[in-house]
């Protein structure tokens, strides 16, 4: 056997070696679609996971915003001058009371002959 400089000895090519290399290449080509689909499914699962994480984060932020809004509303209610509010409410409630009483008295007198 002759040696090739820098490469090593020349090995005669046998049928079994060629068949093994060919079978190996066929196996790689046969598995390519399955590997591609596996990569696609992994990518899809990752994207769906990120989508759901964003949805949960958005819902959490909405809840925090609703709580802060409620808190501010309650603080405004508690900070209002209650005496002025009660006085205004009483004035609104008492409006027309004398007129209502005179109407009631007239109605009652009409029942008594």
Give the overall shape, derived from the CA principal axes.
Answer: rod-shaped
Gyration radius from CA atoms, angstroms: 45 Å
The string of secondary-structure elements, in order, is: EEHHH
Instruction: Report, as a whole number of angstroms, the end-to-end distance.
Output: 147 Å
Give the DSSP E fraction (strand runs of 2 or more residues). under 5%
The total of helices stands at 3
Percentage of residues assigned to helices: over 70%
InterPro entries: Killing_trait_RebB
Protein name: Killing trait domain-containing protein
Task: Write a structural description.
It is a single chain. The chain is mainly α. The chain is built from 3 helices and 2 strands, in the order E-E-H-H-H. A two-stranded antiparallel sheet has the order 1-2. A hairpin with a 3-residue loop joins strand 1 and strand 2 (8-9). It is rod-shaped, with a radius of gyration of 45 Å. Pfam families: RebB (PF11747). InterPro entries: Killing_trait_RebB. This is Killing trait domain-containing protein.
Name a few traits of the molecule:
113 residues; Killing_trait_RebB; 2 strands; mainly alpha
Summarize the structure.
This protein has 113 residues and is mainly alpha-helical. The protein is 82% helix and 4% strand.
Blueprint of the fold:
Elements: E1 3-4, E2 8-9, H1 15-79, H2 82-94, H3 97-111
Antiparallel strand pairs: 1-2
Organism: Pseudovibrio ascidiaceicola
InterPro entries: Killing_trait_RebB
Pfam families: RebB
């Amino acid at each position: 056997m002759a040696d090739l400089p820098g490469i090593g000895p020349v090995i005669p090519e046998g049928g079994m070696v060629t068949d093994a290399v060919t079978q190996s290449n066929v196996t790689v080509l046969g598995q390519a679609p399955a590997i591609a689909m596996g990569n696609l499914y992994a990518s899809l699962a990752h994207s769906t996971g990120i989508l759901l994480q964003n949805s949960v984060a958005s819902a959490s932020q909405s809840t925090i915003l609703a709580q802060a809004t409620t808190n501010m509303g309650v603080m405004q209610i508690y900070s209002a001058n209650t005496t002025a509010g009660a006085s205004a409410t009483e004035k609104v409630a008492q409006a027309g009371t004398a007129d209502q009483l005179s109407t009631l008295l007239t109605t009652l007198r009409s029942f008594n002959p």
